[in-house]
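Re: [ENG-882] Designed sequences occasionally contain unexpected residues at chain ends

Forwarding the minimal case from QA. Structure tokens:
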């Protein structure tokens, strides 16, 4: 494994889930949807790198519990996936703000911003930081998503001029280094 994750706290969602699932029969059925949220969070963290077997085990156990559960108000996998997409949309809003910070020279470079996000907020280091992650995701798609969010939720989500320029330049690192 060439990826490294320096924050043990990023493994907390999966560890909490595994502790909860040790007594499967006594796992509260109304909390199954919350458990799926923990699984989705773990899938997007270091757990996928450092604890893949445990992540698979948690998914298998939850599927078994869910198959026996008839509680009508629990969240479906589809709803949880939609929630995960909402979280990603919020992260893309952070990229928009990051581009503004780079444009206004609040921060010197995209590399400095990435380092600050990793060390200061716990952004997953194996993703390379917020700017590197955004460049890999594709800024054109991000700009399109933000334009839709601006229509739905207000002007604060409108893509910044810096983000549009970075898209045309080939990425935040291409424009801001």
């Amino acid at each position: 494994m060439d990826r490294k994750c320096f924050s043990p706290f990023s493994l907390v969602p999966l560890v909490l889930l595994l502790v909860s699932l040790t007594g499967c029969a006594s796992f509260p059925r109304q909390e199954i949807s919350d458990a799926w949220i923990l699984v989705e969070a773990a899938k997007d963290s270091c757990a996928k790198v450092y604890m893949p077997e445990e992540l698979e085990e948690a998914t298998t156990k939850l599927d078994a519990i869910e198959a026996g559960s008839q509680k009508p108000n629990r969240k479906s996998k589809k709803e949880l996936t939609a929630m995960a997409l909402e979280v990603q949309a919020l992260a893309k809003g952070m990229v928009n703000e990051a581009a503004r910070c780079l444009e206004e020279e609040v921060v010197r470079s995209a590399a400095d911003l990435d380092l600050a996000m990793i060390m200061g907020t716990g952004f997953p280091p194996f993703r390379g930081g917020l700017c590197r992650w955004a460049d890999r995701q594709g800024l054109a798609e991000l700009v399109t998503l933000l334009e839709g969010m601006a229509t739905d939720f207000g002007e604060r989500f409108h893509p910044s001029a810096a983000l549009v320029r970075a898209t045309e330049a080939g990425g935040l690192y291409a424009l801001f280094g």
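QA comment: On inspection the terminal residues look reasonable. The domain at 77-176 is CATH 1.10.1040.50 (N-(1-d-carboxylethyl)-l-norvaline Dehydrogenase; domain 2). Proposing we downgrade this to a documentation issue.
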